[in-house]
Structures are given as C-alpha cells and as structure tokens.
C-alpha cells in the first residue's frame, strides 16, 4: 500500500504495518518540547508527578527563550521554578537563557532527526520538518499529560504535496517563497494537513527549509516536511550527528494526496504579508516608499547566520536611516557566534542596529521592542496578528531579511533588488 | 443566552493577547483579558450558557491554551464555527470545551435568531431549521466527557496503579 510521509511515520510509531489518513493512532513521541511555559505545564501535574513519576525523563526538552532575560519578578519566578523542576525530576535536556529560540536549539543540537516524531507546546514545532521529522504543536494540557504517560493520540492527516521547480532569483529567498505560497493557499488552506515539499529542493539550504517548514502552521498545517537529501546529510554531519541514529522516511510513489500544487521558483519576487493576516500577500514593489518605524531581523523564522549575512551585505559601510530603528535577534548563540566570526554582527552594529540576546524578544510582544500605537514594523518573523508585538493599534508587515535590511537603510519599504 | 458572532480567522492573539501568555495561566487571571483586542465588551458581559458563532479557521495561530481555558471558565456552552485550526481544536477537547463544526448553521445565522442545541442527536436548530453536525470518535469523546485530558489521564493512571 502506497503511503504518504505522515502515514509512514505515524504507522511505524504506532507499531502498525500501515495507516490511512483519518485513522486514529496512539504513539510515543520521541521528543516533547517545552519552553517558558514549562512552569505552567508542570504546575498542572505537580501532584500527579509526585505520585506517579515522570513517564520518561529523556523525552522532555526545555529551552528558556520566550521572555529572556526575565523582564520582571513574575517571569523570573517562573524561570526559577523551571530550573528547580529540571534538577529535581532529572530532565536530561535543559537549555537555559541565551542558548536560543527553542526550535533552533532542537535542530542545531541534533535533538530532532529524520523520521522522528516530535511534539511541542508551541505552534512552530512544525519547523523540524526541515530535517525530515514529523513535528507538530500541542497545547499545555496535552504536554502535561505527556509528562505522566509519555504517549498520546494522533489523527493521521491528509497530505498536500508541493512540488518546486527551478531556482530562486538573486535577492529572493525562501521567506518570499513561503509568503507567496501562504498568500495563495490561505491561512486555512492546509488546516489539519501534512504538507510535503519536493522537486528541485537541492538549492534550498537547511536554513531555507527551516524558514519554510516553520511557517507551515501559518497555513493551518499540522506539519510541513522535506525529504532527506545530500543537503540534509551534509548538515547533520556538520553538527556531528551519528548516521546510525537516523530513520528517514518519505512518501511512496502513488500515495494519496488531497491536493497537489506546483511552484516555479524563478517566478517568485520579494514578498510582503500585510497586517493583520499572514495570507495577505503583496509583492514588495506595490508598497515601496511606505515609512516604517521599526525593522526586525531575527526570530526562529529568519534569525540564522545566513540571514544576518544577507543583512550585513546590504548594510555594509552604510547607516540605518534616522527615521527607523533596526533590531537584530539571533535565533541562537551558535548562530550569533557564527555571525560574529564572519564579522556580520560588527557590520550591523556599526550601521546602527540594536543587538538583542538570542531568544524570542519582540516577536510575541511580551517585552523588548514593543510598538507604539500608529507605528509600523517590518519584521522577518512569522506572524503579523493584531497586537502580536504588544500593541493592538500598531501594524506588522512580514518580509525576508533582505527586504528588511534594504528598508532599514531608507526607513521606507524598499526592494532589495534595487538597493543591493 | 447570548450569541457572540465573529468572522473568519479569529486568531489566538485576538482571543487572548500574547503579551499575557507568560504571566496569566489561571482562569481568574485569564478572564478579564478574553477577546480583549477583538471585542472589549465580551469579558465584561459574557454569561454562562452563552455561545460563540464564528467563520472559518477559528483559533488559528499560537498553541497557547488560555483562550480555551478562559472560554470554558466563563461558561461558554459551545463554539459553533465553519472550521477550526487544529491546535485549538485539540486544546478544546483537552479542556472539555464543546466545539461544533457546522458551516451551514453559521452561514444562515443572523443576530437575534433563536438557536437551540440538541447534543444527543448532534443537531442544532437555527431559526427553526435543523442542522446536523459531526461528532467526535468514541475514543476522543471519552476525553471530553471525562472533563478533559488531565482527568482522563488521572483515571487511567489510577486504574493502572490499582491493577498492579
Ligand atoms: S521566535 Fe517568535 S515564533 Fe519563534 S518560538 Fe519565539 S515567539 Fe514563537
């Protein structure tokens, strides 16, 4: 029986020969990610854990990233609680503040590998499809129950196959591609579905694939995934993962799809997503000249050294416009170190950028870089919902690192193909 | 009973702003901020037994469960929408909050139309027209009926412990 990627991983994990879209299966995920919300999660089941214990101390991974360093007494207290819990319960994988955004940390530390099943109490858990994992977000209560039982149920999703052809043009990136795709299929276009990316993917680096898989949830997807190829193998070798531990999966020829879509990469142009919905697509050319008061390059979507390198290339020897401000938010310490070694951080800071610690910072509006009423922000993050950056009367526009860097230079939306 | 009607793609930031995600977890902390950026009247006026009607992709966005916990705590009897985002849908099962997917009922609904739920039959009456909606598979209904995932899990763990 020909199966999709989702059908293959979920049936194997459930100990079954096969599974079909729509089936319910019970599986033990290889990984359970939590972040600052681990305090609220463990609170729910503190008494149960005292009685029944933790199902598997190897399964949970905690990364402190959302509000770091703590912004007030309340967040400091919950970080403290999490550190105490980690010590007491023997959790094997804990990363304190400054390591990076949880999703980046999961991938770069080799904690998610091809063919794994990972869940996380964060919607952008779907990012790990970049390295061929089946990864999806869950709520806090489900994470709490997983601490006790180690397993949960999954409805095997239907699948959408996206086939890519050609190559992206100069100054056009994976971010422009995924914003274009979401604009076309809509914020609910992949609701409950698994999305498989295939075709000419060899030109997409793991960073590119991360950006694309990360935004799968913005079209409603349960997970978004790439096959393992030479690019994946090269990346995993680089981070020192032992090949024997991979169990890559991919769809069989003849598997059943809900929908098949094709994109020509050569036709993609620099893209924007307009407030307050990610699927409000517009080519950058249509908004050139619109003033923005804040620019943000970073987050789990686009905060890697390769993103900062593009920004540094555009801003090298120049200054951020006096009419705007540029925030740099590296996705992790490792990515920050790489950008430091390359001299890109120096370039950006000399140009007038403000460097924030690796973490979520302004992305979710809890602290750092909040917007004022009436302000506009151009950001490389993945979500532009009303109020997302702390102010419901501000506007967030999404774009690629190149577009944001070009815009920081002029203070107005700019086409990176013109500025660079 | 009042019906609160909203449009498509009502996201989690509208239901519960992200800036409170790491400081409010308990129902009483959540309640005053429910739907704060969408409908400031909601938190003040909502009563137990009220329902929400909404368009497609309700609950899209973050995995934060405060919207579900809060809506359950203020006594929302059911949400009726054209469709839901999956993490929200799952979170509702886990909190024992009733979500009904019934695009036809939402399409005909206008303010002040009488609405009645019949859970036994999985039907609802809107303006005296009957609409059928899908139910959950029995394995999943068991979670909602236990009052939510934690109650369900505790019962299973207790049974397992006493079987030993
Ligand atoms: S960087 Fe933003 S999108 Fe990514 S995990 Fe943090 S808050 Fe979520």
Structural account:
The complex is a heterodimer of chains A (420) and B (164). Helices cover 32% and strands 18% of the residues of chain A. By secondary structure, chain A is an alpha/beta fold. A five-stranded parallel β-sheet of chain A has the order 4-3-2-5-6, sandwiched between helices. In chain A, a hairpin with a 7-residue loop joins β12 and β13 (281-283). In chain A, α2 runs parallel beside α3 (73-89), α2 runs parallel beside α5 (140-149) and α6 runs parallel beside α7 (206-214). The longest helix of chain A has 17 residues, at 73-89. Chain A is globular. The model of chain A has no long low-confidence stretch (mean pLDDT 97). With 164 residues, chain B is of the alpha/beta class. Chain B has a single domain, classed as Aconitase, domain 4, CATH 3.20.19.10. Chain B is built from eight helices and seven strands; from the N terminus they run βαααβαβαβαβββαα. In chain B, strands 1-2-3-4 form a four-stranded parallel β-sheet. A three-stranded antiparallel β-sheet of chain B has the order 5-6-7. In chain B, β6 (123-126) and β7 (129-132) form a beta hairpin. The longest helix of chain B is centred in the C-terminal third of the chain and has 15 residues, at 149-163. The termini of chain B are far apart. In chain B, 43% of the residues are buried. The model of chain B has no long low-confidence stretch (mean pLDDT 95). The interface between A and B is large, with 48 and 43 residues. The complex binds iron/sulfur cluster. Iron/sulfur cluster is lined by residues 101, 103, 122, 124, 299-300, 360, 363-364, 381-382 of chain A.
């Amino acid at each position: 029986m020909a199966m999709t990627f989702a059908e293959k991983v979920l049936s194997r994990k459930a100990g079954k020969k096969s599974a079909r879209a729509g089936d319910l299966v019970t599986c033990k995920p290889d990984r359970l990610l939590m972040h600052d919300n681990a305090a609220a999660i463990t609170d729910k089941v503190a008494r149960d854990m005292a009685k029944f214990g933790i199902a598997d101390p190897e399964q949970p991974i905690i990364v402190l990233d959302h509000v770091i360093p703590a912004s007030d007494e309340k967040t400091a207290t919950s970080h403290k609680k999490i550190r105490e819990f980690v010590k007491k319960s023997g959790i094997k994988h804990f990363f304190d503040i400054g390591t990076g955004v949880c999703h980046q940390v999961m991938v770069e530390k080799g904690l998610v590998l091809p063919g794994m099943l990972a869940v996380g109490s964060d919607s952008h858990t779907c990012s790990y499809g970049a390295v061929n994992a089946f990864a999806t977000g869950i709520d806090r209560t489900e994470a709490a129950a997983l601490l006790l039982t180690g397993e949960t149920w999954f409805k095997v999703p239907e699948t959408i196959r996206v086939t890519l052809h050609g190559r992206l043009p100069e100054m056009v990136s994976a971010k422009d591609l995924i914003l274009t795709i979401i604009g076309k299929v809509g914020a609910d276009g992949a609701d409950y579905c698994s999305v498989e990316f295939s075709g000419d993917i060899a030109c997409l680096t793991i960073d590119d694939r991360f950006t694309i898989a990360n935004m799968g949830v913005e079209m409603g997807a349960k997970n978004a995934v790439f096959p393992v190829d030479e690019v994946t193998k090269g990346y995993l070798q680089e981070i020192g993962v032992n090949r024997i531990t991979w169990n890559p999966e991919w769809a069989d020829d003849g598997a059943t799809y809900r929908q098949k879509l094709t994109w020509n990469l050569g036709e993609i142009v620099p893209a924007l997503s307009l407030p307050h919905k990610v699927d409000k697509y517009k080519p950058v050319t249509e908004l050139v000249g619109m003033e923005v008061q804040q620019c943000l390059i970073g987050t789990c979507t686009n905060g890697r050294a390769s993103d900062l390198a593009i920004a540094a290339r555009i801003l090298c020897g120049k200054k951020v416009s006096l009419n705007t401000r540029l925030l740099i938010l590296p996705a992790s310490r490792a990515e920050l170190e790489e950008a430091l070694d390359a001299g890109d951080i120096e370039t950006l800071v000399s140009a007038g950028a403000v460097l924030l610690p690796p973490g979520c910072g302004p992305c979710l509006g809890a602290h750092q870089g909040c917007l004022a009423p009436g302000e506009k922000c151009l950001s490389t993050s993945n979500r532009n919902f009303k109020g997302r950056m702390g102010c419901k009367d501000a506007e967030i526009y999404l774009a690629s690192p190149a577009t944001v860097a070009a815009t920081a230079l002029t203070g107005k939306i700019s086409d990176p193909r013109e500025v660079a | 009973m009042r019906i609160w009607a909203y449009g498509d793609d009502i996201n989690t930031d509208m239901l519960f702003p992200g800036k409170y995600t790491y400081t409010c977890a308990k129902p009483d902390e959540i309640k005053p901020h429910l739907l704060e950026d969408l409908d400031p009247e909601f938190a003040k006026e909502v009563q137990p037994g009220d329902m929400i009607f909404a368009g497609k992709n309700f609950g899209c966005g973050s995995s934060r469960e405060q919207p579900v916990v809060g809506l359950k705590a203020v006594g929302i009897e059911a949400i009726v929408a054209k469709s839901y985002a999956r993490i929200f849908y799952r979170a509702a099962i886990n909190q024992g909050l009733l979500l009904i997917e019934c695009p036809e009922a939402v399409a005909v609904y206008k303010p002040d139309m009488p609405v009645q739920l019949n859970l036994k039959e999985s039907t609802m009456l809107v303006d005296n027209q009957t609409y059928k909606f899908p139910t959950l598979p029995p394995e999943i209904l068991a979670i909602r009926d236990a009052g939510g995932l934690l109650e369900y899990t505790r019962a299973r763990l207790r049974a397992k412990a006493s079987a030993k």
